[in-house]
Amino acid sequence: MAGKSKGKRRGTDEAVVGQVDGGRAELAPDRERARAWTLLIDGAPQSHVDLADPLHLDFAYQRRIGHLIDLAAPARRPLNVVHLGGGALTLARYTAASRPRSTQQVVEIDAALVAFVREHLPLDPQTRVRIRAVDARAGLAKVPDGWADLVIADVFSGSRTPAHLTSTEFLDDVRRALAPTGWYVANLTDGPPLTHLRGQIATAASRFAELAVAADPVVWRGKRFGNAVLVAADRELPVAEFTRRVASDPHPGRVEHGRPLADFAGGAAPVADASAVPSPQPPPSVFQ
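and the corresponding structure tokens:
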């Protein structure tokens, strides 16, 4: 269970703090949006939620995933979605608001974090969101074959993606859970020389026919640590529309796919369980 909170509850201008399994959780108020909060774990920003407007995605990488949720099917059509990693349930809230009657499963190993978020940032009781407090791979294994239209992986232990969520064996189970037309979406983090990102592209390419990756231009150039959003499928992806949306964001990004993406991977080998390592630790400057 979440520890005792300090400060006042939502609706005030003071932070809310609690102890969760992953460390010190803090909900910091957004000074520009009256009912919005940023979730930080041990000082590292994890999620941003606007309770008054769940369609508002403040973090650039979450906005890019939001574009993919929008593009995965015709507007307003309900989807079956698996979220590996819960955070403040930002993307589950977004899906519920943009695609009513969607059925969603959230897998978040930190049960105390789930309790903390649900206490201070409650979900609309009408949303069809089930939360399982288990390891991401263990939770994924419980998803029926071919059930998911989207599997979204946004899993961090501290500031790093665990090694067992970076491998071909992990993606084999993602493919098992996906419908034939389903998409796999992952939030990846890396910095110079982008070895982890290249390996993750190669790993996804070994299991899916179509890939696209969105990131800030400075991340692509290996100039800065940051996020990259990967989408993979066995059907053609709406790359042109995804590219247009990412380029039109408040912080414009660039989408790579096809031959340029393969060239970027540069012959990197797919990652197996036996050789997998966590994603790189971000430099301290990322959170300053």
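(Above: one complete record from the training split.) Residues 1-11 have pLDDT under 50 and may be disordered.
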